[in-house]
Design goal:
3 domains; mainly alpha; Serine Threonine Protein Phosphatase 5, Tetratricopeptide repeat; globular
């Protein structure tokens, strides 16, 4: 277990050393290919390197071949193969290899389902099954979803969450306790990125208490989920105190997260240092466009228009558009910037500073903006703040204005405003108004984030029985 534990602390070189020793002692140990695959998975996650991805993905077939020679009566026989397929599917999805990823998800689900029938008490099956259920139950429309549907594969987000919650809650004191960090890693990912759960932060922090502080993966989980859910001060505290020994795998993304956190505080000087550090140390392909756009905002907020123009141009010309953040950054950089009051409000909102965001927005009015796009964004951001402050009536009023001014635009503010209205009405059990809002959402076409926004609206209609 030394290699496995090192992997889940992101001490990847230590893990490689342990495996090299194991290969000499027990060269036919079939768990070695699985652990080697874990190392590749986390290496690619931390480096974001497309070159290394293209190189390492060829390792998959020979690892599966080595496992296929092992004991077919072991619960790890199918489990290990499923894990390898699932890990590569998750990485491929980051680089647009959706068809192959769909095939691997199909294989993994079939292997885990068969293993679950053969070994119902082998509870590790539930990790992969829960992750696949959740992922397939919430995929936005697109190539991956249509391919999986063609294979007759679907999922259920609620069932996936239940599986992972039950597993994470029940591992302590069992023989499977060493797998706890891996289960929490999967569960936190599903809560935050797939389910967009309001409990993502609290549950991640709770479950991470039982993971050693020497784990850099714990730092990543806690800081990422904190930033995603508006707990910026907590994210900065975690990132400032992270372990920095050379024994850990280099992880430039954590520096990027620090920069994002400081920017959400409007601590522009600290944000600039961290974001520039990320560009210097990053060897990967992702978050480059997003970083240049954020640096451009810093110059704009500092009234350096020429500096803004130079960095904004780099958000278009530098980096790649694999990740959603980079795609959105490129789109934003191609248009004139939002007024600085809206940029400030956006950042403060993302940081969880709702009162400050409201104060910023209250320094102006919707009529002060010259374009319908800026008016739509102003009312949208005001609606989002009021919703977070639990002032639903004011939220709905502003969302309605956001729709009015943005209904025919390519920006996402109107569509997301209608979606949020639907959610508010749904929580109030006003199904008629909720259905109306969700249908307004679906009626808007050719806007940013359309696939994910439409998927949420369709899910809303399904929940209220109007699909």
């Amino acid at each position: 277990m030394k290699a496995y534990n090192s992997i889940f602390q992101l001490k990847l070189n230590n893990a490689r050393a342990y495996l090299n020793t194991e290969k000499k002692l027990r060269p036919n140990n079939a768990i070695i290919p699985l652990l080697e695959n874990y190392i590749d998975y986390f290496y690619l996650l931390t480096t974001e390197s497309k070159v290394q991805f293209d190189k390492l993905k060829d390792n998959k077939s020979q690892r599966l071949a080595r496992i296929s020679k092992d004991d077919k009566n072991s619960p790890y026989f199918l489990y290990a193969q499923a894990e390898i397929n699932l890990q590569w599917a998750l990485i491929r999805g980051r680089y647009g290899e959706y068809f192959t990823a769909a095939l691997e998800i199909k294989k993994a689900k079939n292997q885990l389902s068969e293993n679950n029938q053969k070994f119902p008490n082998f509870i590790l099956n539930q990790k992969g099954l829960g992750l696949i259920e959740a992922l397939l139950g919430s995929l936005p429309d697109g190539t991956l979803k249509s391919t999986l549907n063609a294979f007759g594969i679907d999922g259920n987000l609620k069932e996936g969450l239940n599986k992972l919650n039950k597993l994470a809650s029940g591992l302590s004191g069992t023989t499977y306790q060493p797998f706890y960090p891996e289960v929490v890693f999967c569960y936190s990912f599903v809560l935050s990125d797939i389910a967009h759960s309001p409990f993502a932060f609290s549950k991640t922090m709770l479950f991470c208490k039982n993971i050693t502080d020497s784990s850099l993966l714990k730092v990543y989980l806690q800081s990422y989920v904190s930033i995603r859910n508006g707990h910026t001060d907590e994210a900065i505290r975690i990132l400032k105190n992270r372990p920095t020994s050379p024994v850990y795998q280099p992880f430039a993304y954590l520096t990027y997260l620090e920069g994002v956190a400081y920017l959400n505080q409007l601590n522009l000087s600290a944000a600039q240092v961290k974001l520039e550090d990320f560009l210097k140390t990053n060897k990967g392909v992702n978050y480059i466009k997003d970083t240049y756009l954020r640096l451009a905002w810093i110059d704009l907020l500092n009234s350096d228009v020429e500096g803004y123009k130079e960095l904004n141009a780099k958000a278009i010309s530098k980096g790649f558009a694999y990740q959603e953040k980079d795609k959105q950054a490129q789109k934003e950089a191609e248009y004139p910037p939002a007024p600085t009051v809206l940029i400030k409000a956006r950042l403060l909102f993302d940081g969880g500073y709702f009162d400050k965001a409201l104060s910023t927005l209250n320094t102006t009015t919707g009529s002060a903006f010259a374009t319908d796009k800026d008016k739509s964004e102003y009312y949208y951001r005001l609606g989002r703040v009021y919703e977070k402050l639990e002032k639903d009536k004011l939220a709905i009023e502003n969302y309605q204005y956001a729709v009015k001014f943005g209904v025919n635009l390519s920006s996402y503010f109107a569509a997301n405003a209608a979606l949020q209205m639907g959610k508010i009405y749904e929580l109030k059990n006003d199904r008629t108004q909720a259905a109306k809002a969700y249908k307004i959402t679906l009626g808007m076409k050719s806007h940013n984030y359309q696939n994910s926004i439409d998927s949420e609206a369709k899910a809303g209609l399904a929940r209220i029985g109007d699909n």
